[in-house]
Amino acid sequence: ASTLKEAVAEAIPKKQERLKALKAKHSNTSLGDIKLDNLLGGMRGLKVMLWEGSVLDAERGIAFHGKSIPDCEKELPSAKDLGLKGKEMLPESMLWLLLTGEVPTADQVRGLSAELASKGKLPSYVEKIIDSFPKTLHPMTQFAAATAALNHDSAFSAAYTKGIKKAEYWSPTFDDSIDLIAKLPAVAARIYYNVHGKGDGKQAIDPNLDLIGNFSNMLGYGDSVGMTDFLRLYIAIHGDHEGGNVSAHTSHLVGSALSDPFLSYSAALLGLAGPLHGLANQEVLVWFKGMQESIGQEASDQQIEKYLEDTLASGRVVPGYGHAVLRQPDPRFSALSRFYEQTPELRDQPLVKMVQQVSKIAPVVLGRSNKIKNPFPNVDAASGAGLTAYGMTEMNFYTVVFGVSRALGALPNLVMARALGLPIERPKSMSIEALEKSLK
Ligand code: FCX
């Protein structure tokens, strides 16, 4: 296949066959019991959703079609492989892997980058909508609203209105998804310019650059190979984290009503904007700043330990630590830490050093609590420090960068859900009275 769409078209019939075989053999096979604890406990652990891109293991962390982050770093075409400045894997390569299960060639990725560049410019009505937002409106709210507004030109919506057949749903869903992935950097950069005055808010997209090379230019960091490469790694590894997390599940749920990809992903962004999910990367920096003000930049291990204890005693969460599924340090955290250690200009940055120092002390303090199930750092503990070190000090923009990334996982899943004909989601809810009656 020379294009991603052709590769997806080849992958779909094989998946349809495998699903058909599973259904034929196992439609009534149990995947586990539902306990009251599951119902009251945010449905943790219940296997109730099909999600093709990645699987999260509590001990080993994320695997994208079976490939760990270090595997992807080795195998996926990187900036270097495409002759660009930098060396990190490209989010386009990750997108190809997530959609098809295959590692693309450098040429395939080059073609995808060019396609994304050709679709990256915003229609002027969306620019006007973004420009009309008050600067004080949180960038995530702006991001979600602008993303929803892009559905004005949705291919899926138009095709559905015309009466497209169910077997063909995936095709305009794919077209919208690529269109949205191409435009998210421009939406984000326009918001960054309006709120923080950096970059130029215009979209001078270079057709020979990759998605993140162009994103970095639009944000005003294009001259920094370090920042551009950091963003590539950041965006590649934040893309997918199986289906049950709030943003991924939201896009799946909203998409199951056949809302188009722009609406589905806008909803996902609103979930990502919550402090227990994507906003945690902003919260981590707020927490670090508070700590620095309270105990200084060169704090000792004992002072940090005490600060962590005080945070817990005050009833707040320590942002960047804990996870609903993981029971080991997050491999995404480890990947960012490795990047910091291997990058001389970052290694000695105060905030980067603090991230590393806290990541050794916090698991001990959190581990003493008998309720916290995972005392280890998650990705958000590390991500803001690199952005800050490269000059992006505006914490309320960090979740937007996460939001540019999560589309790489959420949108392929919408394409697959439609290719596999998955139905509208409609789990059963229970009232206390209904539970009392049925559990007697
Ligand atoms: N600090 C303090 N308390 C914590 C904690 C933390 N980092 N992590 C968990 N706990 C508490 C929970 O608040 C809960 O307390 P409660 O019983 O009084 O309500 C108890 O420990 C049990 O929670 P647990 O089962 O370990 O964790 P959950 O699955 O309920 O929640 C999150 C998982 C991630 C929400 C939780 O660990 C947390 O709030 N962490 C801080 C916020 C954060 O970093 N979120 C980002 C996660 C992720 F990587 C992402 O989505 O980006």
Report on this model:
GO terms for molecular function: acyltransferase activity, acyl groups converted into alkyl on transfer. It holds the Pfam family Citrate_synt. One of its GO terms (cellular component) is mitochondrial matrix. This protein is mainly α and 440 residues long. Among the domains are: 113-275 and 394-419, Citrate Synthase, domain 1; 280-389, Orthogonal Bundle (Cytochrome p450-Terp, domain 2), CATH 1.10.230. It has helices at residues 4-26, 36-40, 69-75, 91-100, 106-118, 124-132, 139-149, 155-162, 170-196, 211-219, 225-237, 246-256, 261-272, 280-295, 301-313, 331-342, 344-347, 350-368, 380-389, 398-419, 432-438; strands at residues 54-57, 61-64. A two-stranded antiparallel sheet has the order 1-2. The radius of gyration is 22 Å and the shape is globular. Alpha-fluoro-carboxymethyldethia coenzyme a complex is lined by residues 245, 276-278, 280, 312, 317-324, 371-374, 378-380.
Jot down its keywords.
440 residues; mainly alpha; Citrate Synthase, domain 1; Cytochrome p450-Terp, domain 2; two-stranded antiparallel sheet; 2 strands; 2% strand; binds alpha-fluoro-carboxymethyldethia coenzyme a complex; mitochondrion; Citrate synthase; transferase; transit peptide; Citrate_synth-like_lrg_a-sub
